[in-house]
Design goal:
Blueprint (H helix, E strand, L loop, with lengths): L18 H5 L2 H20 L5 H9 L1 E4 L5 H21 L14 E3 L2 E6 L2 E6 L7 H6 L3 H11 L8 E7 L22 E6 L10 E3 L8 H19 L6 H8 L7 H6 L6 E3 L5 E6 L4 E3 L7 E9 L11
Antiparallel strand pairs: 1-9, 2-3, 3-4, 4-5, 5-11, 6-9, 6-11, 7-8, 7-10
Bound molecules: 2-oxoglutaric acid (AKG) and fe (ii) ion.
Length: about 325
């Protein structure tokens, strides 16, 4: 019962995935209530809305070029590149060969995880050894934008040095390269790119404005929720892969369905180094198609509220 009031998104949960309750609108009710709570929290803690805050609320995504002044960016870049190089010396950057989301592989300096062929390398920020990164993890502007989206800041220890190495889609497809939304409520993710990301490197892809709960969006969500319940009721139907995607609660979407929702086409965000990309991942997004072997290097953080129905901003 309490799972309905939690951040649980998987329809395998007996309450979240309850067929009767979903027929009378449980899923969309949770979405609308969580959205109200997020707006309420945000209003408590956001003192003033600057241009990027407004853009973020309007589009669900904002790109801030030349985010740091040169005299801060240059030593920060050196620090990040050194840490990435040291990690690579101990464990080379490799791509994956198995489908699906891999589990964490603990390393001395953090962990690796594969999304299909894509390697995600997370290197821990040790503030004593990496003072520039430590300071970046407390950046007041990004903390402010996190509050705009979720009404909450992210935790400093949730900021990582994040390298992505693109695998070969023909060998092991990456589920993050399929358009989706992360969960049923607003969450914040940011990537502060240290090096340029070109189209071939798999830039972030986002559908501007798709974080809004329009009538069309809510009816699509309702359909997806009922499809998830039907999948659970028919354990024999469909491949294991399709079943997992239907009931996992991170709904995938086709470009055709986007059009039916009157949303624009997905937009690619290739960027120069020293650029911040921050998004509400309730909006539809994906990791862009890439040439196998290319690498992205960023500082990354996220805030997915553990209590999406909390009324208190902080
Ligand atoms: O790596 C990216 O550009 C986006 C991947 C994604 O879907 C996510 O982190 O939620
Ligand atoms: Fe995602």
């Amino acid at each position: 019962m309490f799972s309905i009031l939690s951040a649980e998104k998987a329809f395998t949960d007996p309450w979240v995935g309850n067929s009767r309750l979903n027929h009378i609108g449980l899923h969309t009710l949770r979405m609308r209530a969580a959205e109200r709570c997020a707006r309420l929290r945000s209003r408590q803690v956001v003192q003033s809305m600057d241009q990027s805050s407004n853009e973020l609320l309007e589009n669900g995504v904002v790109v801030l070029e030349n985010f740091l002044p040169e005299e801060i960016f240059t030593p920060l870049k050196q620090e990040v590149e050194l840490a990435a190089h040291q990690a690579e010396k101990s464990v080379p950057l490799e791509t994956g060969t198995t489908m699906g989301f891999g589990s964490k592989i603990e390393r001395g300096w953090g962990f690796d995880r594969f999304d299909g062929g894509t390697l995600n390398r997370f290197i821990e920020i040790d503030g004593r050894r990496m003072p520039q990164c430590g300071a970046f993890a407390r950046d007041p502007r990004i903390l402010g934008l996190s509050r705009v989206i979720t009404g909450m800041p992210y935790r400093e220890n949730q900021v990582w040095l994040y390298q992505t190495k693109n695998g070969d889609e023909r060998v092991a497809p990456d589920l993050q390269k399929v358009l989706h939304r992360d969960t049923f409520f607003s969450s914040m993710k940011f990537w502060y790119y240290i090096t340029p990301v070109e189209e071939k490197d798999g830039p972030f892809v986002y559908v501007p404005g798709s974080h809004k709960l329009t009538r069309e969006r809510l009816s699509w969500e309702q359909e997806k929720a009922l499809a998830a319940c039907a999948t659970i009721a028919n354990p024999g139907a469909g491949s294991a892969h399709d079943r997992a995607l239907a009931i996992g609660g991170s709904f995938r979407i086709s470009e055709k369905a986007l059009g039916l929702m009157k949303l624009p086409r997905p937009r690619l965000y290739p960027v120069a180094g020293n650029t911040l990309v921050i998004a509400d991942t309730l909006g539809f997004h994906r990791r862009g198609d890439a040439v196998p072997g290319t690498v992205r290097l960023a500082l990354y953080g996220n805030k997915r509220p553990m209590l999406p129905f909390s009324l208190l901003g902080h």
